[in-house]
Design brief:
The protein has 315 residues and is α/β, with parallel strands linked by helices. 26% of the residues lie in helices and 29% in strands.
């Protein structure tokens, strides 16, 4: 099969054997997304050698259970053991022996085929097109915020960052009825939010010490600093980004203001698919370009451009 290969922070196209994992489904990838995490892997954020990519929609071509043959699916990215302390205590995404699709110990989906355990797969409703289904994983990650933090309609919520993930976070937070404002940098980001009636706020207009919940989705020290300044005492800071390298942080204000800090990553797939099926979230305007798999190197270059939203690979 044709696949994109990452090694020593260098991408190349290769011909590789079909993946085979006992007990797992073989999936033909129909569409895959290029995520910010993929770009960070190339920059050396985390040591990974193999096929990158973890956002996809595909079709099952082989499986231990024949009822899955031909089914259109998306897949959760953490393959877990089910036996360690984290798994036994209801924290499978923190499995001590997990592999992570296209990120850690498991080849990803920037290829013609991939494999995953059946337990990771979710059927895509017939009414949801591939172009929307490919966003299921990041949409689930956006919904994880509401799994972790109770957001009331009376809350003042500030989202800092309106990139690929930030756009989905904004759409899901808007459904809570909270007083939501978004700090967005690029004109297209602002335009997409305004189309959905989501209100913007300039960084200079953000009132310090006033916001009940602040979501940081820029992955930059400046975004983190703004989030900290905006949060009220006993407010909740949600960190939706991973930060490359180290940041210098004065932790004393977090203690004095009794701030709650929540790290947030993977989320629930079934609610994400329901939102897509009902049309309550529409990620398709985020698609900035489609490339064939043999154009994957060009796709990554396009995804690197400032303000670029979702780039898709099709096989």
């Amino acid at each position: 099969m044709r696949a994109l290969w990452l090694e020593n922070q260098t991408l190349s196209l290769r011909d590789l054997p079909l993946p085979e994992k006992p007990g797992e489904a073989l999936i033909r990838v129909r569409l895959a997304g290029v995520c910010g995490t993929d770009l960070e892997l190339v920059r050396g954020y985390y040591p990974f050698t193999g096929i990158p990519g973890h956002e996809f929609v595909g079709e099952v071509v082989e499986a231990p259970d024949k009822s899955w043959f031909g089914k259109r699916v998306v897949g959760e990215i953490n393959a877990v053991c089910g036996e360690c302390e984290q798994c036994r205590n209801g924290r499978p995404t923190h499995c001590e022996r997990r592999t992570v699709l296209g990120i850690a110990g498991r080849d990803g989906v920037h290829a013609e085929y991939t494999t995953l355990p059946l337990a990771n797969l979710h059927l895509v409703p017939d009414s949801v097109p591939d172009e929307a289904a490919v966003f299921t994983e990041p949409l689930a990650a956006a919904l994880e915020i509401q799994q972790q933090v109770q957001i009331h309609p009376t809350d003042r919520v500030l989202l800092i960052g309106a990139g690929r993930l930030g756009q989905l976070i904004a759409q899901t937070l808007a459904l809570t009825g909270a007083d939501l404002r978004v700090v967005a940098r690029h004109p297209l980001q602002k335009e997409l939010l305004l189309r959905r009636g989501i209100r913007l706020i300039e960084e200079s207009e953000v009132q310090p010490w006033r916001w009940d919940v602040v979501v940081e989705a820029t992955g930059s020290p400046s975004g983190f600093d703004l989030a900290r300044q905006a949060l009220r005492p006993r407010g909740t800071l949600v960190l939706k980004s991973t930060y490359r390298g180290e940041m210098t942080v004065n932790w004393s204000p977090f203690v004095v203001d009794e701030v709650t800090i929540v790290g947030s990553r993977c989320g629930p797939f079934e609610p994400a698919l329901r939102l897509l099926e009902r049309g309550e979230v529409d990620p398709t305007p985020l698609i900035a370009g489609r490339f064939r798999l043999d154009q994957a190197l060009e796709a990554y270059e396009a995804a690197k451009q400032p303000g670029a939203l979702k780039i898709l690979l099709e096989t």
